[in-house]
Amino acid sequence: xxxxxxxxxxxxxxxxxxxxxxxxxxxxxxxxxxxxxxxxxxxxxxxxxxxxxxxxxxxxxxxxxxxxxxxxxxxxxxxxxxxxxxxxxxxxxxxxxxxxxxxxxxxxxxxxxxxxxxxxxxxxxxxxxxxxxxxxxxxxxxxxxxxxxxxxxxxxxxxxxxxxxxxxxxxxxxxxxxxxxxxxxxxxxxxxxxxxxxxxxxxxxxxxxxxxxxxxxxxxxxxxxxxxxxxxxxxxxxxxxxxxxxxxxxxxxxxxxxxxxxxxxxxxxxxxxxxxxxxxxxxxxxxxxxxxxxxxxxxxxxxxxxxxxxxxxxxxxxxxxxxxxxxxxxxxxxxxxxxxxxxxxxxxxxxxxxxxxxxxxxxxxxxxxxxxxxxxxxxxxxxxxxxxxxxxxxxxxxxxxxxxxxxxxxxxxxxxxxxxxxxxxxxxxxxxxxxxxxxxxxxxxxxxxxxxxxxxxxxxxxxxxxxxxxxxxxxxxxxxxxxxxxxxxxxxxxxxxxxxxxxxxxxxxxxxxxxxxxxxxxxxxxxxxxxxxxxxxxxxxxxxxxxxxxxxxxxxxxxxxxxxxxxxxxxxxxxxxxxxxxxxxxxxxxxxxxxxxxxxxxxxxxxx
Length: 608
Fold this sequence. Notes:
By secondary structure, this protein is an alpha+beta fold.
């Protein structure tokens, strides 16, 4: 009342309250703002463009920011117009919240600079900062500590809602305070994605795992958090609009002054689960269910680790082990769990898992009973073969020493490289497997690779055939293996091979290689010179003619080649000139028309 008595010239008055103080502010008829006290009025460096009947003051980061509403529905932040259709507003420490005549409620993140205030578009489907409300709704109050606002409806009734923007902002504040228990509670009751607990301030989360577990306490709550984990960083995706964006002056500065941290791609879930596992396993009396959930919720799930843990439990308490299996089967498809249990070669564990499934015992009991009768290594082979782990099954055959069966298995499942690796130090068997591999490569038309395999076996006849089938690119390998054959090829056969390779190289336009074959394998200097001239390698052609003492070929072959090259080059240049003469004027005309009348030119055509 003292303030009012001493400041009767103020047209309107507002107050600002925080946890430590309450301050009064006044506005004169010109829109100037003052900080009020009992003895004096201190002018503020901020003002409105004119007197606004309703106003409020906030202090984001200790910089005063005033919001005012005119009778026409114009809402201002200092002198900046934010919206022209505002019907009511309230200010919280984090947000300006206002309703519009379009029946939306909007949330603007407060920032130190008025120019950084961003008003969301009317898009409630994509932006969490904008939500539809009932026609004629008015804001009554905001309760930041409860993450709620109170709306008065046109009928006069009052409703409390928990806007997603406020809830997520409140959850962020709680996480910043290290109050993970309350943050989790709000996430659970308000259906906020649990990933925000570790995505907001992840370094703090990883350093506070023990406190996090202590605050959640209940086994079901820890399981709920673990089962909600996924690789997506929700602070950058679904909740990116619910936090204040970095300012232009300091775009690398993270919210609340913390350093920016980004989960490495594909490691978030595993990192969080491993951190929780380390803490859980170090605690006395830690609940087994949480440990199993942490293993299973990794990406990919660490089913083998969880099943190994259950296998150890089976030796101590079968009832506890059975409950653990039930929990694993609840989290993961039981058929997948059964396959993993088999993959551990623990038949008792596999039987325990199978009993939790909907399978008919007549399906799995005979199979498991049959496995029990087999020797250990043979049993492992049968299991890995059944599970499709062919490479592991092949290793078991190697241990068994069943080479003939291994060859058949290798051929059936195309495991040649694995088999070659297993027998790399056993020369006789390595040769047999290499021959099988070469035959497989031939059947797949991989002739070059097949030729290399045959060559390694010194089977030069087959290697020559494969290299020849591979085409002109393998002409050197083909000629080498042809000359390595024992007994060697006849002169006629060698000549036919060289001629066919030279013709293929001519067709492939590898004239230099064709010239080499004609010169060295067919003793045809004239044809070699023609090939070199065809490839425009005139210097080499002249050198060969002189070196071999055939100057007559300078006129008969080289001059003819030069004339042909000149003719083809002249024809090519004439073609280019014709295209330029036809197309350049057209391009110039199109550019002129586009510059004169762009709208008419591009009408109905996509602009490039």
